[in-house]
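Severity: low
Component: inverse-folding endpoint
Summary: output formatting inconsistent between runs
Steps to reproduce: submit the following structure tokens with default settings.
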């Protein structure tokens, strides 16, 4: 009984500590967004996605943040200062009441900044990852469903405000 209680408390604490750490990582990456010498279509992409009834939006952009993953280049490991980044979710294969959140990182830049790369597992007990994008700032602003996708020709470039909610 003591071990079960200890494990339960540990799992609750880990879940409560993981959320703020993941949001800090997302914020740090978004603050490093890089738009220099990029077309407006390649500044930011937000896709509105729902999986198994849970909100699992995806977020992709280019950032001037040092890569977290070492990549082999010419028989040596290197890190670049500009990388393609993203956050994606998928249904948890062990428990379909939760989603898994993954951080995507592509070493350097290529023609399609929203595809490819290596995925790093962040957490497996996500109930919702909601990205709200606004064309204007202020309390009365209405969010836009998607940003920077092929379906939204007018919603490209950088928005006025981004809100990310993780449950």
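Observed output (run 2 of 3):
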């Amino acid at each position: 009984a003591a071990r079960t209680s200890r494990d339960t408390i540990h799992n609750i604490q880990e879940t409560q500590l993981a959320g703020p750490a993941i949001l800090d990582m997302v914020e740090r990456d978004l603050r490093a967004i890089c738009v220099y010498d990029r077309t407006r279509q390649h500044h930011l992409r937000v896709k509105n996605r729902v999986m198994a009834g849970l909100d699992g939006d995806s977020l992709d952009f280019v950032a001037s943040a040092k890569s977290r993953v070492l990549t082999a280049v010419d028989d040596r490991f290197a890190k670049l200062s500009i990388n393609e980044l993203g956050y994606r979710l998928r249904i948890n294969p062990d428990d379909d009441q939760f989603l898994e959140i993954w951080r995507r990182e592509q070493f350097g830049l290529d023609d399609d900044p929203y595809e490819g790369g290596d995925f790093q597992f962040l957490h497996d007990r996500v109930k919702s990852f909601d990205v709200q994008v606004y064309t204007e700032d202020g309390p009365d602003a209405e969010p836009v469903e998607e940003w920077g996708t092929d379906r939204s020709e007018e919603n490209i470039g950088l928005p006025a405000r981004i809100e990310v909610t993780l449950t």
